[in-house]
Amino acid sequence: ICTAHSKPKYRGSLHCLKVIAKEEGFGGLYKGCSALLCRDCSSSAIYFLTYSTLCDWLTPAGKNKPGFLVVLLSGGFAGVLAWGLATPMDVLKSRMQVDESGQHKYRGLIHCARQSVREEGVKVLFKGLGLNCIRAFPVNMVVFVTYEAVLRFTDHFTNKK
């Protein structure tokens, strides 16, 4: 029976850390780490490669720095593409992290992937993809505008000397 007023398991981040370490040991703090590593390594490579390539393609010949609109579009598309690649591993990471200590439904990343696909089909790996992409476009537009602004700001001061 689920009640509307059930108490949360954790009373904050330090309490969460303490409970997980007590119930699952030190390794419990790293559940989902393999999926996180796969997610972040591949998506970061795609993220920066996409941004750089799009900036190069969209910057007119003769200009050495991309314009504001180019940065916005390149950053937005880079974020969407990176999250498109990252979402399946993010789904698996989340499933591994919420696997309760007494339950141990998943023995590792491959087992989690197989079980999830067997039970719910391949579409399970893309849960949240639409929302990730909708969020990723504007967020990464701002990230790269800020990145370029900081680069130009630091270039201004380093070139003065």
Automatic annotation (TrEMBL):
Any Pfam family hit: Mito_carr
SUPFAM superfamilies the UniProt entry points to: Mitochondrial carrier (SSF103506)
Major localisation: mitochondrion
Keywords noted in UniProt: Membrane, Mitochondrion, Mitochondrion inner membrane, Repeat, Transmembrane, Transmembrane helix, Transport
GO cellular component: mitochondrial inner membrane
Membrane-topology annotation of the record: Multi-pass membrane protein
Solcar repeats: 1-57, 66-153
Cell location: Mitochondrion inner membrane
Key word Cytoplasm present: no
Positions of transmembrane segments: 67-86
Lipoprotein found in the keyword field: no
GO molecular function: transmembrane transporter activity
UniProt xrefs under PANTHER family: MITOCHONDRIAL BASIC AMINO ACIDS TRANSPORTER-RELATED, SOLUTE CARRIER FAMILY 25 MEMBER 47
Family listed: Belongs to the mitochondrial carrier (TC 2.A.29) family.
UniProt protein name: Solute carrier family 25 member 47
